[in-house]
Design a protein that fits this description.
The structure is a single chain. Strands 4-10-9-8-7-5-6 form a seven-stranded mixed beta sheet, with helices on both faces. Strands 1-2-3-13 form a four-stranded mixed beta sheet. The chain has a three-stranded antiparallel beta sheet with strand order 11-12-14, with helices on one face. Helices cover about 40% and strands about 15% of the residues. The chain contains 16 helices and 14 strands. The chain is α/β, with parallel strands linked by helices. The chain starts with a helix and ends in a 5-residue tail after the last helix.
């Protein structure tokens, strides 16, 4: 079986041959057959060191034995019955214990659904329909999250979103003065921020800046949502908010919170979260905020999550992943300096990004940081993939507890060779 053959077959049944637009690749994607630890193999038997890790979901590594065993045991008991069960309580207790903002937790079926619900709660609690977002920050694919998601534009990068919805969304820079100016509009009752900075820290958001933005939002008296869908359980067992001591009203989670399976969560202040309680009636509506979803808190997902929680709560997984990402960043910077390439590898926690063209990001805005020439990005990603190294998106990657110094050093050799090819082919000056 060949990747090309599967791609031809896929394009006859799936739009573009994929189920997610970022999985599209010319001339064709690779089709993965199995994964273990920090490695995976495609249908042709090619092996890859994985720095995508299930779009940041596999914090413990692919097919961690504890997760596999928990899913197997639960599947034998009940895959899904659409009923309450004990493991969703245990799961919520873990989240409430680890996240400073969490007094109550509600589970969803995806990260996008988590931010949808968070915005609904923010609007309901504040009584105001308008929402402020930060330029370039990503909160999923739903209608209320796309305006301003592409840096340098305040338009929604998709057809099919009504102007009436876009008119409710305001965009500002990740700057205290810009946020303060935007919040002078008293129609705004909710602010949502990607806790890492745009695109899981591709556009960095310093702790001092995040704290200053927090202060501005607090002074305005509006609901503050941290999107910790990637940073959650990754930057620390309690996400960035626990690591840096900056606590929002609501937090959205997905990816790692589920033990790496499909699903998500929202947690936050009881006063806001209790609007979801069936006994909470406002304006004759009960529950005041409606939230359904067939697979919310699925027992199969809860089993995986409860197996993962003790492993994540210790902080050991995060420490290993952080160390491997630091090794990757340092090695990349050394390679670029050795080859005379202007560029910088940077990032926080277990994430690394590469910017080509200069050795610092000083003075660059989100549109410039995210605006490397497409041929350059393609040459980089293709070169790494050809050498058996798969990256996350754009020029980024991330590590897990399963990454080792040996795997990182092997990937750095691929990076060095890719740089040489890019120089030879004119993709890098």
């Amino acid at each position: 079986m060949m990747n090309q053959d599967l791609s031809i077959r896929a394009r006859a049944s799936l739009p573009g041959g994929v189920s997610h637009e970022l999985r599209y690749r010319d001339p064709h994607p690779v089709f993965i057959e199995r994964a273990l630890g920090a490695e995976k193999w495609d249908v042709e038997g090619c092996r890859y060191i994985d720095f995508k890790m299930g779009s940041a979901s596999q914090m413990l590594g692919h097919c961690h034995p504890a997760i596999v065993e928990a899913v197997r045991k639960q599947a034998e008991r009940s895959i899904f019955s659409a009923d309450c069960h004990a493991q969703e309580i245990e799961w919520a207790e873990w989240v409430n214990q680890l996240y400073p903002s969490a007094e109550r937790t509600r589970f969803t079926a995806s990260g996008t659904e988590s931010t949808m619900l968070a915005l609904r709660l923010g609007r309901a609690f504040s009584g105001k329909n308008h929402v402020l977002r930060v330029e370039g920050h990503f909160h999923g694919w739903h209608d209320h999250a796309l305006k301003g998601a592409k840096p340098g534009s305040d338009q929604a990068p998709s057809l099919g979103i009504p102007d009436a919805i876009n008119d409710l969304i305001h965009i500002c820079a990740a700057d205290t003065q810009a946020m303060e100016n935007a919040l002078r509009d008293d129609r705004i009752g909710t602010v949502i921020i990607e806790a890492s900075g745009a695109n899981y820290g591709c556009v960095p958001l310093a702790t001092d800046t995040l704290r200053a933005l927090y202060d501005v939002v607090r002074a305005a008296g509006v609901v503050l949502i941290f999107d910790e869908i990637i940073t959650g359980f990754r930057w620390s067992p309690g996400g960035r908010q626990a690591r840096d001591g900056i606590v929002p009203d609501l937090t959205t989670l997905a990816k790692v919170v589920t033990g790496g399976l499909p699903g998500g969560a929202i947690c936050g202040r009881a006063e806001i979260m209790e609007l979801l309680n069936n006994k909470t009636v406002r304006g004759g509506i009960g529950p005041a905020v409606s939230h359904k979803g067939t697979f919310n808190g699925s027992p199969l997902i809860a089993a995986a999550a409860c197996a993962a929680m003790p492993l994540l709560a210790s902080g050991e997984a995060q420490a290993q992943a952080d160390a491997m990402a630091a090794r990757m960043r340092d090695g990349m910077n050394t390679a670029m300096a050795r080859q005379g390439v202007a560029g910088i590898a940077y990032g926080d926690s277990s994430i690394f990004h590469v910017f080509f063209g200069r050795d610092n990001l000083d003075g660059l805005g989100p549109a410039e940081i995210r605006g490397l020439p497409k041929p350059m990005v393609k040459a980089y990603r293709d070169g790494m993939l050809l050498r058996g190294v798969d990256m996350m998106a754009y020029t980024s990657g991330l590590t897990s507890a399963a990454h080792t110094p040996e795997l990182v050093d092997e990937a750095l050799l691929a990076f060095d060779d890719t740089l040489s090819d890019m120089i030879r082919d004119g993709a890098l000056q």
